[in-house]
Amino acid sequence: MSWTGLLGSVLDLRVTTTGALFVFVVVTAVCLATLATRLHRRWLLAGLATALVADVVIVVLAGVLVEKVWQPFPDRLPTVVYVWSGLGVLAVALLVGRWIVRRRDRSRPSAAAGLLAAATAVVLCAAGGINAVYDAYPTVRAVLGINDFRSVPFDSSLAPEPGTGESPQPGSWTPPADLPKSGAVTKTPIPGTVSRFAAREARIYLPPAYFATPRPDLPVLVLLAGQPGGTSDWLVGGRLAETMNAYAAAHRGLAPIVVLADATGGQFHNPLCVDSPLGNAATYLSVDVPQWVRTHLQVDPDPRAWAVGGLSAGGTCALQLATTRPDVYPTFVDMSGQAEPSLGDRNTTIREVFGGDAEAFARNNPADLLAHNRYPDSAGAFVVGVDDTDTRGAIEALVAAARAAGMDVHLTEVPGAHSFTVWSAGLEKELPWLGGRLGLDAL
């Protein structure tokens, strides 16, 4: 094997598998034993106990801060995340304790380097263990931020061709002989012209057909990340380009244009997909994004060729848009969404986002909207992990409510919990239905 091939194999090595997790556990155990084991009376009597107490106190306080005070996440963190975090903190506490108690450890460079390496290994393994919970960075390549998809600059070559509106429809379009084998990803700001929403840069997947001449008017999928999250999450953990390229390969190079728009405005921001003092996210996603896409890309302008989807909080947002703006997004995909938009609990949400107005909350809550309105022209897919105990009940209740409101919906269950394992598989499973709904899969 060449060096290039060997490097590629290393970069494509998966770091979220059961085997990788086993390695993390073994390395963590060995390194913690290295940091803890020293036949020194002062260390055995005081050092170990102090490190353990410090570890517990730090993790508990961090948990209270995250879950009760700061509340940066719409969902509670799994216990295993705190366990791995505790192991990482313990390694640092043991390192600091050894540095303070053992003068010999400080004076011998080899000993100091060994202890630092052991602590660093535990911290890295803890990060790997947490990553395995969500499968957000599935390979070494993803961890290092090295793309495995084709990228193109956003420039005038991607603009709608003159005479758009007379372009061939996907059903009558014939792919040229030199059609690229894969699509490409570009990135560009989508300004909040009407909403004034401060959105981060969007990523856009363009299928192979977009690089043909003439190019057809293609359907659009606006796909949203969770919270915390960013517009690149679907490309990394969600395997978006790989999934869409596979679909396009089976459909003459045709696939939806996928717009990875920013629904939050920041990694830890959470405007709950509504217009509020936290940001006019609803107007941005339902007005600014569609207007910009129709102006700057060659797409089918008919709303029946448009869909919105998302994972976790992004799934909640997708259903919110489908119920508040069915004229814009009559098709949706809700993956592991919440029962309702939430900052932790309903009272806090109503107070901080809606100024204490419970009726304003109800006007933006899908469950309330589905109970009081009919949506005969809307259709949607709900996806949830079999082991996702936090959101599965909510998803099942929303499926029933959507059916009662006249929506054509279905539920797909895939193995896994609340992670990219579920969301990447869910997108792959739902693409045939989505393509049919948007006018592609029957081609």
From TrEMBL:
InterPro entries: AB_hydrolase_fold, Esterase-like, Mycobacterial_A85_antigen. Coiled coil: none annotated. One of its GO terms (molecular function) is acyltransferase activity, transferring groups other than amino-acyl groups. The keyword Nucleus does not apply. It comes from the Bacteria. Residues 157-185 are annotated as: Disordered. The keyword Ribosomal protein does not apply. The chain crosses the membrane at residues 15-36, 43-66, 81-101, 113-134. It holds the Pfam family Esterase. Keywords: Membrane, Transmembrane, Transmembrane helix. This is Esterase family protein. It comes from Nocardia speluncae.
